[in-house]
Amino acid sequence: MNTEIIIHPKLNHYGLITANLDAMIEWYRKVLGMTINHRSVVPATAQNRAPFSAMAFVSNDEVNHRIVFFEMHRAVESDRRQGPLQHVAFEYETFDDLLGTYGRLKNLGIQPLWAADHGVGTAFYYEDPDRNIVELNVNNYGNEWTATEHLKTSPPMLAQVDPERMIAGRKAGGSPWELHKRASAGEFAPATPYDPRA
Fold first, then answer.
1. Sequential DSSP letters for 54-108
2. pTM score
3. 3-class DSSP state of 23
4. Average pLDDT of the chain?
């Protein structure tokens, strides 16, 4: 686990906020050949925790999603401090690259806003100086085709994680897949839950 040098992740996907989910999906289908790998409505019981009411994950290649659309009503969207870009994501090749980068950034005084295992991947979210959200992630399956099948057949999950506890699990010999399963079971939950609305 390298905590000293910069590992160069690849641009993975970006998130867009829209009040016109169907129109956006159709436009990106026509223009870029994007297809839906997952679409869901946020349950009413969770809408007080999430600022969006629906989401759709689309791609035009083997990656499980290149764009994720978050549907917000115009009133909520206009209250946001930032524009329609919800986040930009960069993907690491290995779990150790993600954990090592966390350690390197922590040593520089840069802490994530929150961190989670989403089923298809594990992600740490940071805020840049202009308050844009930057997601650093790793594919839990290590294979885009398998991750895409997971996304098509299972709703995205949200298991909040404490990166320090994940590092301890990795140093104790846990494989990346074991860390994912343990995170899914809530074993690495932070002592104080993150507020995803932040």
1. EEEEEESSSSS-SEEEEE--HHHHHH-SS-SEEEEEEEESSHHHHHHHHHHHHHT
2. 0.73
3. helix
4. 87
Classify each residue of 137-168 as buried b or exposed e, where b means 16 or more C-beta atoms within 10 Å of its C-beta.
bbbbbeebeebbebbeeeebeebbbbbebbbe
Q: Specify the DSSP class assigned to residue 42.
A: P
Spell out the domain ranges in the chain.
10-184
CA-to-CA distance for 55 and 118, rounded, in angstroms? 14
What tokens appear for 142 in the block?
A: 């290590």
Decide if 158 contacts 116 (C-beta within 8 A). Answer: yes
Give me the pLDDT at residue 78, please.
Answer: 47
For residue range 43-86, list pLDDT tens digits in order: 877 766 677 889 999 998 999 999 999 998 754 444 445 567 88
Residues of the chain with pLDDT under 50: 75-80
Q: Which residue has the tokens 């980068």?
A: 101
Q: What is the dihedral of CA 7, 13, 17, 18, to 10 degrees?
A: 170
pLDDT (0 to 100) of residue 172: 97
Class of the domain covering 10-184: alpha beta
| pLDDT (0 to 100) of residue 87 | 87
What does the CA dihedral 45, 49, 52, 56 come to, rounded to 10 degrees? -80
